[in-house]
């Protein structure tokens, strides 16, 4: 009889110890303040500074969106400054060369200075980051054997048609003829986009990047 009492007492003590440990652990967790970690709670909502030259990016001053800054852009800039020309929101952004939020004589001068310059804009990862898009880099390198067939693939139209809309494609060449390489690929995609709707063209214009 006494043996049964000892066993029951031992089991009760073990259960008590388990419950006490769980309660103590739970109290410890509740008592601790939440730690956001070294980068804060919005760590994944931001991106580090990272820029690449992009032949496909719109250049400030290209108000008429013809992929070059010409005398016509300078004229449009001056007319916008004098109030003779109403610009769309996107045109205003391109005309505001010094990015101060207004179109003034400094923007007109800045546009004139950029006329016929072979200047490429930069794609800014930190500014463009929204946490909802994917980035794929297609790298053309003579040191990587499989990069050549990937670069010259004739499945470009299928790539766009089958691709999710939230994907950015970066075509990067590390050859000595890098600029020529990316311009050639850009021409292929420009031809494909010409057969698509205006809305789709605008979308892929912002999601295809050609990095010399």
Automatic annotation (TrEMBL):
Q: Where does the chain cross the membrane?
A: none
Looking up SUPFAM superfamilies in the UniProt record yields:
Type I dockerin domain
List the GO biological process terms.
polysaccharide catabolic process
Q: Which GO terms describe its molecular function?
A: hydrolase activity, hydrolyzing O-glycosyl compounds
Question: What is the name attached to this protein's record?
Answer: EF-hand domain-containing protein
Native species = marine metagenome
> Coiled coil located at which positions?
none
């Amino acid at each position: 009889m006494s043996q049964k009492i000892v066993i029951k007492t031992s089991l009760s003590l073990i259960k008590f110890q388990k419950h006490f440990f769980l309660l103590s652990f739970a109290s410890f967790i509740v008592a601790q303040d939440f730690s956001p970690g070294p980068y804060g709670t919005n760590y994944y909502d931001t991106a580090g500074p990272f820029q690449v030259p992009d032949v496909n990016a719109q250049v400030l001053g290209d108000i008429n969106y013809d992929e070059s800054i010409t005398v016509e852009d300078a004229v449009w800039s001056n007319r916008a400054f004098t109030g003779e020309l109403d610009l769309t929101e996107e045109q205003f952004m391109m005309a505001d060369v010094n990015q101060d939020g207004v179109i003034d004589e400094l923007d007109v001068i800045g546009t004139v200075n950029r006329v016929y310059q072979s200047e490429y804009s930069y794609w800014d990862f930190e500014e463009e980051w929204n946490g909802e898009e994917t980035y794929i880099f297609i790298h053309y390198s003579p040191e990587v054997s499989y990069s050549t067939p990937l670069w010259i693939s004739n499945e470009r139209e299928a790539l766009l048609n089958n691709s999710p809309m939230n994907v950015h494609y970066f075509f990067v060449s590390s050859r000595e003829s890098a600029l020529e390489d990316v311009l050639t690929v850009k021409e292929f995609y420009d031809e494909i986009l010409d057969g698509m709707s205006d809305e789709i063209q605008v979308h892929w214009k912002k999601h295809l990047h050609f990095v010399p």
